[in-house]
Amino acid sequence: METLVEEAVAKALRDGDDAAIRLYVCACTERMAPLFVGLRAGAPGREGDLDFFAESVRDLWYVDRPLADAAERVRLLERFPELQPNEEGITDVADTYAFFAVLCLRYALLSHGPGSADHAVSCGHAALTAMGMLDRNLTGAGLLAEEQRLQSHSVSGDASGVWDASVTAGRERFRAAVSRLPRRAFR
Questions:
Q1: CA–CA separation, 161 and 165 (whole Å)
Q2: What is this structure's pTM?
């Protein structure tokens, strides 16, 4: 599979240590988290999923050690409706971006335990794909280029500002995705 992740970023992940991989995936997931949490907030029966998602993203930031229960978290995440097969596919804007956020978390959890560079690249690819889709639907958004820049920064060896930049980018993405929703979605 061809990936959108820049070759220099993929190489840094393959050549880096487990902590570098964990920083990369938690930063990607932090930027995508508002797309799940914000777009699923208030959905009936999803309170536990929202809590699980937020706790998992928080716990990913402990990059100095792997998550002991990463495999169990993947198993629980794979029960989310976003990852269930659907004959009709995903056509709704909110469903699309929530799916990519869940997919990003799945790959982050898969790479967090053993420090798998391949899963980390898949995590970054999910984020880039979602941002590319948003860019195609919003004039002048520049979200794909920003994601590429932030991914490069997260593997640069300089962790300063990664969390702040990821939180800020996540909020901007949520606002961009919400602008694509029909007005009636919030009534």
A1: 6
A2: 0.93
